Amino acid sequence: MIIDKLSNLRSYASFNEKFNIICEFLEKNDLNSLCEGRIDLSDGVFLNISSYEPYSAGDKWETHKKYADLQIVVEGDECMDASSITDVEGPNGYNEDDDYEFYDICKGSVTTVRALPGTFAYFAPCDPHRPGIKFNSEKVKKAVFKIPV
Q: What one-character DSSP code corresponds to residue 108?
C-alpha cells in the first residue's frame, strides 16, 4: 500500500511505469467533471468513477489478482483500511470476471487512512483492503484506476 498526495504521483512512476498514463490523464482531465462509469485509457489501464454512500466498517476485505487499485477520493471523504495477506482469513472464492476475492476477517494489524480529496491510495493485488468506510461525508465520489499487473 502507498498513500501520498496526488501531486507526488509522478514520482512513483519508477515503481510502476503505468503511473505515467494516469498522470497524463489527470493533467488533461478534471475528475470532478467526469460522469460515473468506466473510461479506458491505454495499456490495459482503465478508470471507474463512482458515487456512493460510505458504509460502517464490517469485516469484508478484498484482494485482486489481475489489477492493482489506485484510488482517489474526488469529493467527500472516507476511511480505507489495509492489512497483510497473511492476516486475513476466510477467502470466499475468486471472482475472475470482476477480479476480486473477499475475505471474512482480519486477525492482524490494520492500517487506517482518512482519504481526502488530493490524496491517493495504491493497493497492490495482494494488499487486502476495505475502502468506502464512513468518515464524515454522507456521499463520496471516487476515481479508481485499475492497473494491470
A: S
